[in-house]
Amino acid sequence: MPFLFLSPSTQYFNPYITTGDERYWMNALADEMTPYLHASGITVTRNDPDGSAAQSIRDSNASRQDFHLALHSNAAPQALSGRLRGVDIYYYPTSEAGLRMANILVDNIKPIYPLPDRVQARSSTIIGELRRTRAPAVLTELGYHDNTEDANWLTGNLDAIARALALGVTEYFGVPFLTPGSEFDAEAAGENGYMALRSFPQTDAEVLAQIPNGTAVTVLGDFNGWYTVRAGDLYGFASIAEVQLGVMPLGE
To answer: Quick check: pTM over 0.70?
Structure first.
């Protein structure tokens, strides 16, 4: 089960030329991404939207994280305000993991951005969320919010962008991408007295936890004989044979 720190912008003072601001839209994007990530067995920790970039770095470094993904949108220098377009995915130049994630995200964003030749991976040594996080990191600049076309693209395609980014994260971690559906109440019901919550949907994958039979869990999706399961704060995969489903999806 991979651990992802998701760090949408806290910059409420960056208005969009259309409506809203950078903090609002990047947190809305993170909200759209999270169900895809959870359904795919990825544990997500979010930053404090009322905090700062420095606080996001401290929070990321305070717990186990396998990757740090920062979500931002860009603005042109005043002399070029409203005239620039493009998506930049930043990584630290000595981070092989950061470069790999950046290239994956570039490949996934290009098909949905109107100007695919302007979607690029770029290195940076000055961005704090790349330089100071313990986990490898990338910072996305998802278009220019002072450009009407880019602002409309981002705000009008949140689900498509969220899906592309979440797909990229699953590709990076090597886990199947699963679309979220109804959540089901369930119980651990393993043959040996516990349900094995695993990091990947295969029998030789790492066992993250042994969940005692009868413990309430939530099923988020299924894949080739495996369920994506939430057990407390943990997300992972469990064999269908070790899970007893409830009758109705949650909320029905």
So the answer is: yes
Is 70 exceeded by the pLDDT of residue 247?
no
Do residues 106 and 128 share a domain?
yes
Q: Is residue 179 assigned to a domain?
A: no
Whether 188 and 147 map to the same domain: the answer is no
Q: Tokens for 49, please give them.
A: 């939207």
Kind and range of the H or E element at 99? helix 96-109
Angle at 215 between CA 211 and CA 216, to 5 degrees: 120
Whether residues 58 and 168 share a domain: the answer is yes
Q: Which helix (H) or strand (E) holds 186?
A: strand 184-188
Domain with 55 in it: what CATH number?
3.40.630.40
Cα 111 from Cα 31, distance rounded (Å): 22
